[in-house]
Amino acid sequence: METVVIVIHLMVVLALVLVVLLQRSEGGALGMGGGGGGGGGLMSSRGTANVLTRATAILAVAFFATSLTLSLIASNEDSPASILDAAPAATSDAPGAPGADTDTGAGGGGILDSLRQQSQPSGPQVPAAQ
User: Does residue 33 sit within a domain?
Assistant: First the structure.
């Protein structure tokens, strides 16, 4: 679900940027106005401006809707509120063991020691090359 909304959001963002760049500004920029005054074209410059203005408004509403949807999806995910809540307490007092303080020999028990224990592999290990 989240991936679908992200893809839609990115398409809306690209379309919104394109529509904004196509609009005629005071300086002319990338606007597709042409400057020809006759009625021979498909749309007059005024009609093109109205279509681009409406397209910008519709895409802006779609952008806000997808942004709010993504924020609601992110807030409903089951994840720990803090890294401190996810780390288990370390209870190793052996000198030289991970989590033990090498200077005093006393067990560390701090959050950094417990995170270090989590990051070490727990499965079968290959001996180091000599």
Answer: no
Rounded to an integer, what distance in angstroms lies between the CA atom of residue 100 and that of residue 108?
Answer: 5
Identify which of 46, 20, 44 has the alpha carbon closest to the alpha carbon of residue 31. 20
Structure confidence by residue, pLDDT tens digits, 24-66: 776 555 555 555 444 445 556 677 778 888 999 999 999 999 9
Give the confidence band of 77 by pLDDT, cuts at 50, 70, 90.
Answer: confident
How far apart CA 39 and CA 102 sit, in angstroms, is: 86
Please check whether residue 32 lies inside any domain of the structure: no
Q: What are phi and psi for residue 83, nearest 5 degrees?
A: -65, -25
Residue 105 structural domain: 83-119
Packing angle of the helix pair 2-22, 45-75 (nearest 10 deg): 150
111, 63: one domain: no
